[in-house]
Amino acid sequence: MPVRLGELAARFGCELRGDPDTLIERVATLQEAGAGAISCMAAGMRYGYARAFWNIVGLQFGILFVLLIVVLLFRPQGLFPARGLKERI
Predict the structure, then answer these.
(1) 37 in helix, strand or coil?
(2) pLDDT tens digits for range 14-44
(3) 29 within domain boundaries
(4) Could you point out which of 15, 33, 82, 84 has its C-alpha 20 to 30 Å from the C-alpha of 59?
(5) H or E element, residue 38
(6) Whole-model pTM?
(7) 80: pLDDT confidence band, cut at 50, 70 and 90?
(8) DSSP states of 44-58 as a string?
(9) Mean pLDDT, rounded, for 8-15
(10) Shared-domain flag, residues 52 and 81
(11) DSSP string for 1-35
(12) 3-state class (DSSP) for residue 65
């Protein structure tokens, strides 16, 4: 029994981006999906969580690296605080 994409989105509380009048006639795998089919891609424990974990770790290290550079370049003493100390004496 065909159902409109807008009806599916409303039934399951999803945000729809696209034409709500698109007819969905069947559920299919990603390889077999075509016009009138709906499919799902979920890696789950196989790839998704591990990849997401390492992406977050890499992002955090990147942010820390940028903050370290900013602190070193823009702190009041400059990069070489000893040089400023010698000029003050």
Answers:
(1) strand
(2) 888 889 998 888 888 878 888 888 887 665 5
(3) yes
(4) 15
(5) strand 37-38
(6) 0.42
(7) low
(8) TTTTHHHHHHHHHHH
(9) 86
(10) yes
(11) --EEHHHHHHHHTPPP-S-TT-EE-EE--TTT--T
(12) helix
Number of domains in the chain: 2
pLDDT at 65 over 60: yes
Name residue 3's beta-bridge partners: 24
| In a domain? residue 43 | no
CA angle 5, 7, 13 (to 5 degrees): 100
Please indicate, yes or no, whether residues 53 and 82 belong to a single structural domain of this protein.
yes
Residues 54 and 82 in one domain: yes
Report the share of the chain in percent with pLDDT over 90.
2
Give the range of the structural domain holding residue 58, as residue numbers without chain letter: 48-88
Which residue do the tokens 């290290």 mark?
61
Is there a single domain that holds both residue 84 and residue 52?
Answer: yes
Q: Is there a single domain that holds both residue 28 and residue 55?
A: no
- Spatial distance between the Cα atoms of 5 and 12, rounded to a whole number of angstroms: 11
